[in-house]
Specification:
alpha+beta, 12 helices, 5 strands
Length: 415
């Protein structure tokens, strides 16, 4: 839009600068052809030649000086007045020089400052043109002057109409210029906002990745180390070698498992349990391992038509289950736990319920630097895949953790 507007302005300026000399050349040619008919007197022909020579010098001077001025000033007004005097005299000598006088119609706005002065300049140009249209100054009485007055009125009426259209076009041009400037400013602001959003998105991505890695480390290394410590504590307090060997073996298995999980977390892969199994099988192995480790009876129930879920969905539900079971082992003192995985229309739900001590959700302490991610971590995981997590608990009545996430099927199909 800006390029098109600049092109129109350049063409208009070129036309305004070249119209007077072009019309002078045209008028001169027509005057030479008709000199014997219109100006047969020798002195008139010589006067016309002298005036045309003066007009040529004036035009050449303005072609040089006019390029230095972008707004009307006293120099441009002086040029207009001198040109009018030469053109009016030539038009009275030979009517074809009215074409040269008409140049004032095209460039008065660029040469004369002020709206009223421009109208006066246009009227001044119409006077010799009207005389030329009736063949010169009327000498045949009142009728000639009446015709002249009528022509003068018609010419100025047309000038007023065309001038009004020109003013409206100028107003539209100014409005377009303002609109273009506003659009350019808005574009620059949008570009700056886009750059700022990119920076914020990059920072948010970095922060989200840090949270993800922190949660992964907590769910793998922290839980594995907790389990290893628990097994080793039993070894340190028992005198039965068979029991000690059994707990050492469990601690060793936990260490190997945690090491594999740590490697996969760093590589941003799915949890180890999902490497070869679907979510139901991975949950069953997780529940069985947790039961062996804690001795708390745990039952896994799968309802609905089991499907192979997208890797991120499966990983999120498995991690939530691991965290929920870890919380039960740390705090609930439960005698029974139930895990339910439900495949429904458009969503998957996971419920982990225990009959332990329960708690008041409103009295949860703030997470510290040494504590786990707990409920906040599970909720963040669910929300990251457009899901939700709710917790129902009462002191002495157990706890229920429920996660709902979208059902997104893996391309490999059902399990």
């Amino acid at each position: 839009m800006t390029t098109a507007g600049d092109s129109i302005d350049r063409r208009r300026a070129l036309f305004t600068r070249l119209a007077p000399p072009t019309l002078l050349a045209l008028s001169g040619i027509l005057a030479i052809v008709t000199s014997d008919l219109i100006t047969p007197e020798l002195w008139k022909q010589r006067l016309v030649l002298a005036l045309v020579g003066g007009a040529v010098v004036l035009q050449l001077g303005w072609l040089w000086a006019g390029r230095r001025r972008s707004e009307p000033d006293w120099v441009s007004v002086t040029y207009f007045v001198l040109r009018w005097m030469l053109g009016a005299t030539l038009a009275l000598l030979n009517g074809f020089f009215a074409f040269f006088m008409a140049a004032g119609y095209f460039d008065a706005h660029a040469l004369v400052p002020g709206r009223r002065r421009r109208r006066l300049a246009l009227f001044a140009c119409s006077v010799p043109i009207s005389f030329a249209q009736i063949g010169g100054i009327p000498t045949d009485g009142a009728m000639g002057w009446i015709v002249f007055g009528c022509l003068l009125g018609v010419n100025n009426g047309l000038l007023t109409f065309v001038g009004r259209l020109s003013e409206q076009e100028e107003e539209r041009s100014r409005a377009r210029a303002v609109t273009i400037a506003e659009l350019q400013q808005a574009h620059e602001e949008n570009a700056a906002l886009h750059a700022q959003l990119l920076i914020q998105a990059r920072e948010a991505g970095v922060a989200d990745e840090r949270r993800r890695l922190a949660a992964e480390i907590h769910d793998t290394l922290a839980q594995g180390l907790t389990g290893i410590i628990a097994q080793l504590q039993v070894v340190s307090t028992t005198t039965d070698q068979k029991v000690a060997d059994e707990h050492v073996a469990r601690a060793t298995d936990l260490a190997r498992h945690s090491l594999g999980e740590a490697r996969r977390s760093v590589q941003n892969l799915a949890p180890e349990g999902l490497s070869y199994d679907g979510l139901p099988e991975a949950l069953r192995k997780t529940v069985d391992q947790w039961t062996k480790r804690t001795g708390v009876p745990t039952v896994l129930t799968v309802t609905g038509s089991a499907q192979r879920l997208h890797g991120e969905i499966s990983a999120t539900l498995l991690r939530i289950t691991q965290e929920a079971l870890a919380n039960v082992g740390k705090h609930a003192n439960a005698s029974r736990v139930g895990v339910t995985l439900s495949f429904m229309d458009g969503e998957v739900t996971l419920d982990v319920r225990d009959d332990g001590a329960g708690f008041n959700p409103l009295d949860l302490p703030n997470r510290t630097g040494t504590g786990g991610f707990g409920l906040d971590g599970m909720r963040a995981r669910a929300e990251r895949i457009a899901g939700s997590l709710t917790v129902e608990a009462e002191p002495g009545s157990g706890t229920a953790v429920s996660a709902r996430v979208p059902l997104v099927v893996d391309e490999r199909g059902t399990t």
